[in-house]
Design a protein that fits this description.
Keywords: 4Fe-4S, Electron transport, Iron, Iron-sulfur, Metal-binding, Transport. The protein has 57 residues and is α+β, with helices and mostly antiparallel strands. It has two helices and four strands; from the N terminus they run βαββαβ. The strands form two sheets. Strands 1-4 form a two-stranded antiparallel sheet. The structure holds iron/sulfur cluster (2 copies).
Length: 57
Amino acid sequence: MAVIIDRDECTGCGLCVDECPSEALSLDAEGISTVDADACVECGACVDVCPVAAITL
Ligand code: SF4
Ligand code: SF4
């Protein structure tokens, strides 16, 4: 399942990458947050920290 990232909303600030406890998030070649679905434990921390609400669980 993992999280869904709205690529049009993400600003590439990187806050979610820093917040993720399982290192499931990273910025891709375009500087947009992307998730490794296998690593995501669905904790919701990235959803809470995103300033533009680009992530949903
Ligand atoms: S829900 Fe938790 S584990 Fe999954 S990507 Fe977000 S911060 Fe990482
Ligand atoms: S916190 Fe939100 S805006 Fe910032 S990189 Fe993550 S998804 Fe993009």
